[in-house]
Sequence to fold (226 residues):
Amino acid sequence: MKEKIFSQDKPQSEEFAILRSKMVEHLMSHYHIQDERVLRVMQQVPRELFVPEALKSQAYKDNALPIAAGQTISQPYIVAKMTELLQIEPNYRVLEIGTGSGYQTAILASLARSVYSIERVPQLAEEAEKRLRSLGFLNVVIRCGDGTLGWEIYAPFDAIIVTAGSPKIPEPLLSQLKIGGKMILPVGFEKQAQRLIRITRTQVDFTYEDFGACAFVPLIGEHGWK
Fold:
């Protein structure tokens, strides 16, 4: 998909554009995010449109923020890191588990050919779909359901991202990953703390890499937390 250029047609937008640039600089200098395509789309996607109205002034702070239904929009760093680790190419078909506000979805959709996103909470799924459509993202399909089951009809996927913490790696997601594809997700036996794990499917098995501690809301579902 062609990378989007969002207009700065409101007085407030200039201020947010400056904050967005500072966020990207911080991602590079402090967190050593190096993927130029990831940095470019994070410079372009207006994060302030994905947070509650009362929190817009905090949209570019280096932390997660609450959204509806007790969920969160992830810290900019974790969005950038997880996206970078997936190594998304323009022809990729991506599965996202946990649409949330749709911000991570927008980042993925700016990089990949298509994004299939599953959200458990109906309100969030509906609002994210409207928000993404209003911003011109036509390569995103969202449905409400149990994300731990994946989306078999569109499998296999080149990349899978799970934006909630699971006590184990959901088996259906492993089976829906293309050979050579990568999955990134937080895994941990405690609901409040996980490890960020990248899985790559090979011809015969899976390889696992640990990228350190993280903290996400729980992944609820048949193959997650009950």
Remarks:
- DSSP finds six helices and nine strands in the chain.
- The CA atoms of residues 184 and 198 lie 4 Å apart.
- The longest strand covers residues 177-190.
